[in-house]
Fold this sequence. Notes:
Helix content is 34%, strand content 12%. The protein is α/β, with parallel strands linked by helices.
Amino acid sequence: xxxxxxxxxxxxxxxxxxxxxxxxxxxxxxxxxxxxxxxxxxxxxxxxxxxxxxxxxxxxxxxxxxxxxxxxxxxxxxxxxxxxxxxxxxxxxxxxxxxxxxxxxxxxxxxxxxxxxxxxxxxxxxxxxxxxxxxxxxxxxxxxxxxxxxxxxxxxxxxxxxxxxxxxxxxxxxxxxxxxxxxxxxxxxxxxxxxxx
Length: 197
């Protein structure tokens, strides 16, 4: 599996860049940032059977993703959409990363949704389940075209884009450079300079 070297300290320049990236997402009309966990937030694939401590797993999270979550969560709705069944472990990590903000975690291979017309393909049931919780908790109806899914699996991202959301295939933290410019006016597959999609 892929593994990236993790550092814990980000320079003020990097922090400023992350704030600018979040601002571009907001200015583009984005309201929900949906992030995959394995090989996206986390530098390894846990296979849904991680046996170490929360602290050990936290040390394997991409610092750039931690910074993105911390910068985005007060200003955007942040969700983790994963096929992992270890949702409680992931929820605990998100509370440690962003203790003042609620981060929704949806896991396993399908999520319950009130909309029975949703096809269980990619992360579609996860995204609809997130939208339903936000509708209930926040009292605001969010739309698919206000979601950005960041995931290491291209099929999940393309399915989200084909269903009206923004998407970015994550190959590593350098892919976040896709947010260095304003979002396109309509949902599409975002690209970064680090890899061809």
